[in-house]
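Job type: complex structure
Entries:
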Amino acid sequence: MALQGLEIRRSSAALRGGGTGLRKMPTVAKYIDTSTCIGCKACEVACQEWNDLPLSKTEQTGSYQTQPTMSANYWNLIQFREVEAPEHGLSWLMRKDQCMHCDEPGCLEACPAPGAIVQYVNGIVDVDPERCIGCGLCETGCPFDVPRYAVGTNKMAKCTLCVDRVSVGLEPACIKACPTGCLQFGDKASLLQVAEHRVQQLKEGGFAQAAVYDPKGVGGTGVITILKFGDKPEWYGLPKDPTVPTTVSIWKRVIHPLGFVVMAAAIFGAIGHFMAFGPKKPKDISRETGGEV
Amino acid sequence: MSELRIPGATPVMGPTAIQVARDREDVVIGDEIVRHRLSSRVIHWVVAVFFFGTLLTGMPIWSPVFGWMAHLFGGLSVCRWLHAWLGVAFAAATVPMMVIWAKDMLFDKNDRKFNIAEYLRFSDKEDPNVGKYNAGQKFFFWMVLATGLVILLTGIVLWWPTYFSQTLRSISILLHDLCFIGFFAAIVGHIYLGTAAEPGTFHSMTRGTVTRPWARLHHPRWYRDVTGDRS
Amino acid sequence: MASLAATFGRGAMTNGWVDIKNADVVLIMGSNAAENHPCGFKWAIEAKKNRNAKLVSVDPRYTRTSAVSDLYAPLRPGTDIAFLNGIIRYALTTGRFHEEYVRIHTNGPYVINEKYDFKDGLFSGFDASKGEYDKAAWQYEADPKTNAYMVDMEMKHPRCVLQLMKKHVDRYTPEMVERICGTPKDQFLKVADIVTSTGNAQKAGTIMYALGWTQHSTGVQIIRAAATLQLVLGNVGRPGGGVNALRGHSNIQGATDMAGTFEILPGYLKTPAGSLATLAEYLEKGPPTTLNKQAWTSMNYWSNYPKFMVSLLKATWGAKATKENDWGYEWLPKVDGNYSWMYIFDDMYRGTSQRAGGTEPGPEGFITFGMNPVGIGPNSSKMINALAKLKWMVVGENYEIETATFWKAPKQYGGPETSQIKTEVFQLPCSGFAEKDGTFTNSARWMQWKWKAIDPPGLAKTDQEVLARILLAVRALYQKEGGANPEPVLNLDWSYTNPYAPDLGEALKEINGKALADIHDPKDPTKVIKKKGEQLDGFGQLMDDGSTMGGNWLHSGVYGSAGNLAARRNNADPLGLGMFHEWGYSWPANRRIMYNRASADANGKPWDPTRPGIVWNGEKWVGDVPDIKPDSPPGQFGAFIMNPEGVGRLYSPLLNDGPFAEHYEAIEAPVDNLLHPKVTSNPASKKFSTNKDVYGGRDQFPIVATTYRLTEHYHYWTHHTNILNQLQPGFFIEIPEELAKEKGIANGSRARVTSARGAIEGVAMVTRRLYPLNIDGKRVWHIGFPLHWGYSGDPGHIGPLANFLTPSAMDPNTWTPEFKTFLVKLEKVEGVA
């Protein structure tokens, strides 16, 4: 839902910028420490309950994971993976998957409906279902495979970072529900410091590659994730160096302007041509004068 | 339409050219030659209407610059739905169009002599052997079919975003757009040439007939074939 | 709990949830705390993040806990004692133990009499015919001069506890641990190294355990081994230390405190035996006493036992209890024999009982509230068949549970035809926990008042209302028609404002206790400390002359003159150690860390000044609520005031299966006991002998299986709750990757597990988190499955009863079934994708 109280930084399919640019707000972020996440799924339930999402029909297929991927009514999913790291043996990695709230959101860039996807000044990327036209192009723009198309209602849905809670000073529901404190919420700058501290601790604890996942390819994300195996984000189901897909960039940054040029060229070409050469009429106009009108 | 009077002309007995043009083509009636029979024209305009519908519902999705167009249909959400169906209708309508025109649109050896530059300069140095359709028109026809097919297929991919892979969708977006842009430019040319640039042409697609001079000028071989006039 | 009481004096988590954050090392073993105690597990994470604490997970499976641990080591199910004794040996041989602590706070220096011995897997005093030990062979040696305990403060005497212990654990070398447990030696040594790094004054480490230790035929001794390890390391009584028993239910500690099992009355007073005809005899035999009953420097808090007992009797019978009638002692039910849950069902199944020394019919009626015997008991088929022998059964529940519908259990469980079952079942809809007030007493012994959130739906009533109405109806029948043994029914004090639905606040006041007459200060009889009718402020005010009443001495203080302290929600923490003295009420006496006298040295100075438990300031003990007389100077009393000898017991002559923990294999053992092949399993453990009590051998059932719970579900309840079913939709079997390959079982396909009792099928979860262990050259597999499902509820979310497969074999002290280690075979289910 597009919220009245928060100024918009950027909006999908906007001809010019979204807000006044005058009101300042710190960029907020979710902090996810996968090294202390126990995969209890409290966040999953909290997300569903706060957002009044209907239950999913799931079945046991040989995994602790609730369902294979997120869905239009399941915005928050812990992914479970068993990996074997040469030095550390078996690890059971659990990562909470949800919208990453990119600073440069590919979904927003790809979205053709004005105001259907907005980024507030605090960095939260939100969907306004009233404006969403259900084209699904946002899915194509997302490097994290987040937006989900609700077939029944023809709308896109994803984590809103509980903007309705955040805007009145509460933490997102998932954070509230987290029992171990592996989820935290706050302004991104200070959470990055917490993250750095934790990464340092992990490095001293033998995880030399520990890192904060805050990929620059999308301008950084509103979800900062601590990875023990920072050099292997794919072990956690995260793209190594995510960017807005090239196709979307080409489409929006090359083809679109090109399109306007071609369209204008065609129209002005025709006009120019007419002025220079046209019209092409039979020389013998004797019949014309006496003929048709 | 039955009793169309030509001002200043002697009323003739028998059917008028317009009447003939309901079901026959390539026949000479007085000063006029029937170029497109009614069914061809209906198909053309059906295609055209679906085309414009598709265009006007697609352009606001393509860019917010054209957002105003969405209001013609009740908003962008309607466009997202209507665009797809109009696209299908457009594609469906092109099928009889192809059936009707395909034979005439086959390229022949004369078409090689078609000089686009000379043509666009509206010079008189045109090939005297241009038949009912010149090579440009044939090219346009096949282009409509080809890009139409691509737009249709990519459109289907984009219609149901959940069923196809992200790669396929990305490629589809690009192709859909590229084809649309090409299509747009071609349509501008088509309309221009069919209206302002070549007076008399538009009439052929409304009432079905052209004048002898028009035919002689634009399609000399066709003119000769239809009229037997070798002068 | 039994083993903690036998070691420290009280059967509960020694420290508390929040205190785990103060630890330097957290050993989680016999528990998957992250899975089953996710909220409390927060504090282990806090310790990791804020203290750089090392979290060590030792478990047969690589669990959710292991996933966030700093070190994981596997072990074969049921071999925990070997592992723990291995660590004790490592500590004692390398000197990585807290010697001064052992000297002053444990019975390490105490000398044991000559009859004690351990040979070929048996302690002295074993009676093979009964399968029981005579504990008289294990007693302390009395000093011939003083007639008191003989001690050697140098701990050199060959029969002093420390020397006996050294000898006992000497066999548990790292190599032996590897051969028994399958834990690779280097991994074991890493664990031992980290755990014993706290064997000094500067560091403190805690152990978290749960049902992974309790539910073995050696369960109590496993916990004993851990408790002794913590004593050796000097970790008991200290902030950041302790043996933290994680209770599985929100209020199971409260239930235990309030006589959750047959052998205890509220406050862990003993249920009287039939042979003790009078209160005087009972008080003579009941309370623990010091050796030879001589004066000693122990507080032996149990010397206040008569006050607790008389107050309990006054709370029970009210004005009907008088000094003349022994305060109604006679009306208390007496036990002669074993009324534990497993025995009740055995009697029910057999239809006869040998209790009270004779033969009588088995139970014909059964009332069950807040439990699901068909689900939770081992050997489900026996459970179902036992219920079918009843005349009637009353089930008070908020869902239609498997027990209530046992008469239509699927055929596979081998119950009688429905038409053949004569049991009349009454199902009473009861409220859930959110539909009533009351207290929860958590693992940390914090009594926390909760407020009703919503009304019970439909005709459902609160448990107390259902029970009250049954009582009052029965009493009315007695008044009208009379009946056998009428006194307890007619004399029970039931003076609640609303007798049909007693207010739980009133009940809590009754538990706390009040003055029935003016109470005078024992030191100054002219001073009245409590006027008649006033609530008491603690168990120190309880009297044995009938002038006070109190339903549970341990909880006394929770509802004193300051009101309901369980309802306090002040999170001030002036000591910075997470004690939160004004949050709820922590029994005993709002003490947050039990045995906290042991957090200080002989002079009352804290071992670690940054983490003081209590400190002697020259006049009194300050810090936490002292677990000792507040003004008794260091040296006057021992740190373990509930133990007559005043110290923690490295050697405990109280348990039924030995004073030291010894490794025994499970009843269904995949290998012989390497240490003493002739005594493979716990010689004192209990089994049953009906046709349903069958036990499997390793030839037919070569794979070890274990059962467990999932974080997404709560027991057998939540498969009735679809939001949780969504998270874990159904039953599955976790199978090691290589074993699955051998059996041709693909992930997500169906597999069948069979034990000597039955067979169940489910979705195979093929994983690398389980793998075979090399047990003395033999490759031993283990698999596991969760227990949350049953045959009642939403047809989309029913599943097999995991306990169909588990054996009716028990620990000899608590009669807890061995759910965690039993033998099975595994097969692919053909013809199903």
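Summary: The CA atoms of residues 33 and 187 of chain B lie 26 Å apart. The first strand of chain B starts at residue 28 and ends at 29.
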